[in-house]
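Think of the structure tokens as a kind of shorthand, similar to the way a musician reads notation: each symbol stands for something richer, in this case the local conformation of the backbone. In the example below we present two proteins back to back. Begin with the first one, reading the sequence and then the tokens, and try to describe in your own words what changes along the chain.
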Amino acid sequence: MVRPKTCRKIQAEPSAFYYKPQGVSSRKLQEEELNLDEIEAIRLADVEGLYHEQAAQRMDVSRATFGRIVQSARRKIARAIIEGKAIRIGGGNVSYVEMRDFRCGDCGHLWSIEAGNCPPGDCPECGSHNSICLFAEQSGPCCQMAQQSTYQPTPI
């Protein structure tokens, strides 16, 4: 009996769920189906340029599993391009997580952690305590600031 796949963490859905060769009717096309975890693996490895170890941690899978996911995705994408197939995206055992991006104020290193796990701790590159939440810079207080808040209601 095959072991069930564990739930993989992804940050967001892709902006499109179907790609096809130009000038060919969809009815005449064969399709390759990519699961949402495969798209996330491609995004982390090829778009963000993360090492497999880092990307695996973000998806909450082992490094070896991440390697198999990204290899499967690349094979399907290559086959679709070479053989003129459409690509349908969807499915898979995934859960969505919100991430917070941080920059080290000393060395400039960028890294991400799941929202709610703030403060981020030391910079993974240089060990500095000087981390800057980029979410807070863009849209107001982040979870790091909220957890450090010492709000006391005023007595009536």
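Once you have a description of the first chain, move to the second and do the same.
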Amino acid sequence: MDDRVIVGRIGRAHGLAGELYVLSESDASDRFRSGAVFLTDEESPRQLEIRSSRQHQARLLVTFTDVSNRTDAESLRGVGLTIAADERRQLGDEEYWPDELVGLTVRDLAGESVGTITGVEVGGPQDRLTVLSADGRQALVPFVRALVPEVNVAGGWVVVDLIEGLLNPPPE
């Protein structure tokens, strides 16, 4: 599944007819349209095709063609929906996929390695990089140009301006 990316995660069942809540992890507004096909992220992936989808109380409700009852729907809870990585939209300049950033080395302004990106939280006022520092501390770094002035995915690193308290607690 190295060439696939998760674009949604199945939540709980809704009703008796097999409808499921899906948490979208995609920025493509039509990703969960009728006829869209996904592979699950299970050890033995299954193919799921969307029969219909609709908004319900600010959440996405989906019906898959081969899921017709609540029991079948509940068996999918927590399963990821994947697409081939090359099916994602083209990124603009200074845009990155979260999976491209995870694992990059974090350098300070002097070029010294200070940690590794272990996750990306998308949303809110800005995205945040989860950084595990060399001494084992974890910190959230706002992913803004003022704090992350340079990203080199091909080189395997990002530069972070280590303002006081960002990766280390402020002095007492």
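Compare your description with these statements about the second chain. Helices lie at 70-74, 98-101.
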